[in-house]
């Protein structure tokens, strides 16, 4: 799936930057509006930022990964967990899981829906901007403002306020509250203190993913669960599992048990993984790649093998003119669409080797004949491949999934067109007939960035791949850099949904599970920093590395 082998101050302060950013919240990252006169800007004395006192100077923005988008400084002692008396309380039953998790991590008592007191952490949803009903109107007004900011910033936003030796985390949805708890956990890591003041935070991109090739290399369930905990703490929200390829099929199957490899995940293990991921607000995105990369299926069903004009088998490719190929793949799609409850699905569709031939119609006359039969004299093999993609999409769409496919599964021209709702997983510009990302963007497609120049960790470094470094991602990559090293125009930013860092196991024995975990540690942190905050990071790379070691 690496694919190259087949082709020839006292104000709002940005974390670590001490730059004013109030004008950017919550309306986006554009320029600040025109400033009023100095007299109009000056707030009444009662609302001015507190002055440093002898006992408590103004706080500084917390150091976290990813960095928070905005911190409003305040004078006060901050907050540290008191394991003797500190508690976590919640305002809503739906936050019990987040509350229990945080209480366990910080060694505090989980007290459920109790009234917060000094030393406590309070978690609350704020869909209506309600106050806490404690009779303190000034506090209720503060909370109303927090609720309004949360709602305006989106469902993954949150507000974290440290006041009067208490912490209050609010958000319009449970995911935002969870992210607030991740920030608090990092703030107090290493015996540090959560600074006084208010954090208002949100991600720049809605898709923040990590993809793992478990087909070529078996990763045990415990290792995957450890990565989920790591991803959750970093505010990732997707885990992709590529579990079917030429080498193996790695998840237990009831519909076709004959194709399952000896080393695999049982469905019980998958369900535990899914439960843990859900508790971290991570969607698991499955991928059963087709019509290429199906060697594990073909091994048990050789009649489905694609053969060229000379009768030579084409590795990993099924004959898409053979109805039996569609039936077995649809069986698997239906079975696993029910096992994986998330609302995203990856259809694959890359590297169908019939379409890498110089003349697909001459090289694969059986496919060419099927294309002409369906589309008339002008029908081509690429039309048949597009039909395959659309048909598989229709199978999974019945389970209300949002669908994506690799960019080399979308073919220009021809009689057939890929369904409009398919997102493009853009991974490379190295494939034969490669198209620039802008072609997809201009056509109205939405893209997820898998740029193999920066985001591909390929075991053994075959085909000129090199292990990506966190520093290179941190210093020179952004979500706009979809292909190679050049960004697309910023006007396409809203069509780029996010990105996914990917581990591919081409030479599976090149690294152990433990070596993979260590090798991706800093790249994962650099990637999420660039997905969470579109601005240039304020910390130099060596400081970022030291921070990563502090909060790990």
Biggest sheet statistics: 8 strands, mixed
State the total count of DSSP E strands. Answer: 19
* Poorly predicted residue ranges: 3-51, 128-135
The helix tally amounts to 16
Percent of sequence in beta strands: 15-25%
What is the first-to-last residue Cα distance?
30 Å
- Determine the fraction of residues in helical runs and give it as a percent range: 25-40%
Structural class comes to: alpha/beta
Roughly how many Å is the radius of gyration? Answer: 26 Å
Outline, from the CA principal axes?
elongated
The strand line-up of the biggest sheet is 1-2-8-6-7-5-3-4
Q: Average pLDDT, to the nearest integer?
A: 89
Commentary on this structure:
It is built from 16 helices and 19 strands. It has 552 residues and is α/β, with parallel strands linked by helices. The strands form three sheets. An eight-stranded mixed beta sheet has the order 1-2-8-6-7-5-3-4. An eight-stranded parallel barrel has the order 9-10-11-14-15-16-17-19, surrounded by four helices. Strands 12-13 form a two-stranded antiparallel ribbon. Strand 6 and strand 7 (166-171) form a beta hairpin. The radius of gyration is 26 Å and the shape is elongated. The two termini are 30 Å apart. The model is unreliable at 3-51 and 128-135 (pLDDT under 50).
């Amino acid at each position: 799936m690496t694919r190259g082998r087949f082709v020839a101050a006292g104000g709002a302060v940005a974390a670590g930057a001490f730059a004013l950013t109030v004008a950017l919240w919550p309306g986006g990252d554009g320029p600040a509006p025109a400033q009023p006169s100095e007299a109009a800007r000056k707030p009444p004395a009662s609302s001015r930022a507190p002055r440093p006192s002898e006992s408590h100077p103004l706080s500084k923005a917390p150091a976290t990964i990813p960095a928070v988008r905005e911190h409003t400084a305040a004078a006060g002692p901050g907050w540290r967990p008191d394991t003797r008396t500190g508690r976590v309380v919640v305002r809503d039953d739906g936050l019990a899981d987040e509350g229990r998790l945080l209480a366990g991590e910080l060694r505090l008592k989980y007290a459920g829906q109790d009234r917060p007191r000094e030393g406590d952490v309070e978690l609350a949803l704020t869909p209506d901007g309600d106050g806490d009903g404690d009779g303190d109107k000034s506090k209720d007004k503060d909370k109303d403002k927090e609720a309004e900011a949360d709602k305006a910033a989106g469902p993954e936003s949150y507000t974290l306020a440290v006041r009067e030796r208490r912490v209050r985390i609010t958000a319009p949805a449970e995911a935002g509250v969870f992210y607030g708890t991740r920030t608090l956990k990092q703030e107090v890591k290493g015996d540090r203190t959560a600074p006084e003041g208010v954090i208002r935070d949100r991600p720049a991109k809605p898709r923040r993913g990590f993809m793992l090739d478990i087909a070529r290399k078996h990763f045990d369930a415990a290792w995957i669960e450890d990565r989920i905990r790591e991803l959750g703490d970093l505010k990732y929200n997707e885990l992709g599992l590529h579990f079917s390829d030429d080498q193996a099929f790695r998840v237990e199957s009831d519909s076709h048990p004959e194709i399952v490899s000896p080393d695999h995940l049982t469905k019980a293990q998958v369900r535990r993984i899914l439960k843990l991921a859900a508790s971290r607000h991570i969607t698991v995105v499955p991928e059963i790649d087709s019509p290429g990369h199906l060697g594990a299926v073909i091994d048990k069903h050789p009649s489905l093998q694609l053969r060229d004009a000379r009768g030579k088998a084409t590795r990993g490719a099924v004959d898409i003119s053979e109805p039996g190929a569609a039936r077995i793949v649809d069986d698997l799609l239906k079975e696993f669409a029910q096992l994986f409850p998330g609302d995203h699905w990856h259809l694959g569709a890359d590297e169908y080797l019939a379409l890498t031939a110089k003349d697909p119609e001459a090289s694969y006359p059986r496919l060419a004949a099927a294309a002409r039969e369906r589309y008339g004299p002008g029908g081509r093999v690429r039309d048949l491949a597009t039909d395959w993609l659309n048909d598989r999409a229709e199978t999974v769409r019945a389970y209300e999934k949002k669908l994506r496919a690799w960019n080399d599964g979308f073919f220009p021209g021809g009689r057939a067109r890929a369904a409009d709702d398919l997102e493009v997983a853009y991974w490379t510009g190295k494939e034969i007939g490669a198209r620039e990302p802008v072609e997809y963007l201009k056509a109205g497609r939405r893209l997820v960035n898998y740029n193999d120049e920066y985001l591909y960790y390929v075991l053994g470094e075959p085909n000129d791949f090199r292990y990506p470094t966190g520093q290179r991602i941190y210093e020179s990559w952004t979500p706009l850099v979809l292909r190679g090293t050049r960004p697309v125009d910023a006007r396409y930013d809203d069509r780029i949904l996010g990105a996914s860092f990917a581990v591919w196991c081409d030479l599976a024995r090149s690294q152990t599970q433990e070596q993979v975990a260590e090798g991706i540690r800093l790249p994962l942190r650099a990637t999420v920093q660039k997905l969470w905050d579109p601005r240039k990071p304020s910390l130099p790379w060596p400081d970022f590395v030291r921070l990563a070691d502090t909060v790990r």
